[in-house]
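Researcher: I need the complex structure. Ligand is pyridoxal-5'-phosphate. Inputs:
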Amino acid sequence: MPAFDVAAIRAQFPILSREVHGKPLVYLDNAATAHKPLAVLDASRRYYEEINANIHRGTHHLSQLATIAHEEARLTVARHLNSPTPDEIIFTSGTTDSINLVASILGRAGRLKPGDEILLSHLEHHSNIVPWQMLCERSGATLHVIPVHDDGTLDLPAFHRLLTERTRVLALTHISNAFGTVNPVRELVAAAKQVGALTLLDGAQAAPHLPIDVQDLDVDFYAFSGHKVYAPTGIGVLYGRYKILDSLPPWRGGGEMIKKVSFSGTTYNNLPFRYEAGTPNIEGAIGLAAALDWINRIGLDALHQHEQSLIRQAAAALSALDGLRLYGPSDRAASLSFNIDGIHHYDLGTLLDQMGIAVRTGHHCCQPLMERFGVTGTIRASFAAYNTTDEVIQLAAAVKKAAAMLR
Ligand SMILES: *Cc1c(COP(=O)(O)O)cnc(C)c1O
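Model: Output:
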């Protein structure tokens, strides 16, 4: 058996055998969401069929089994991120939720004052812009933006100029969802620590493709979504350094996040439960653990090599086409963004869909970045474990055909 058996992987994804508009589905929108393997679907189903109950408060047997499964899922996530303790793993509904959690509690704690600065980059997804703008409105802090070069990489000298003693937070995407740029996050996090800034990485695009080691990155907060790592929708993770999280106030109030409630006052629970008010997405957490186990059985290195090979083939095939412009650096990961001169991304995407090829068109929740490059959007093909060289060839042929029809 070959080291990376893509046929065996595809067989584990029931949705890949369906047709779209009478054509076999070629799914290249993995940066928006990935499909789920049987291992994940089975884990979710088993949860409901065998142990469904609310967690943490029941004395009954099923409640105990559900609690154990939920906390084992937290351990799996902690191991996957090399987090020193599972108490630093907060289950959220996704990356957006995780970043809002951090921005909100920093605001509630009054950690930012007028004159303080939050530094992010021109590559950010709206999820890593808007919560910080809201924090600026609330605190009087100001937002500063690391510019990007024409090849979609960060302007590092500008980063070092923008990073000062006034910088309280560096919030940065690990991999750009729009261009596939892999940021040198370890180096940037280390520089931010030197000036005493808190650091947050948006790992929504990195988690499906790279091993993540929060201790090696030495980052304070790391956020990612389950649905992009082959897990169910509605579950996500916030890793937060214990000392920092423990010094911050709660976010949402409700059940589970308290120690004792009375009308004269309430005391709050320990980490991680303080940040998990209400009944959590139990099935989602269990599905996420199953997805991480599935990824680790394949191995992130093998997965990454496979995806890198596909993206290089796609870049080579597409750049041979007339008037085609690729965005981002040549060593991009997972996502390939392009446009064709004189053709609207939406029109091209619509024709590709008719041929069974699912790509993303538009601004990819990165309007400031699109504006920087003078476009309203791009066409983005993004790759996962189950994509094949044959699909890359189909993509290039379909783009060529669609462009000829639109010219
Ligand atoms: C998808 C994505 C998000 C938002 O994730 P949600 O799952 O929608 O919360 C944030 N940042 C990046 C880089 C993304 O790709």
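Model: Summary of the prediction. Residues 94-96, 125, 127-128, 173, 177, 202, 204-205, 225 surround pyridoxal-5'-phosphate (CB under 6 Å).
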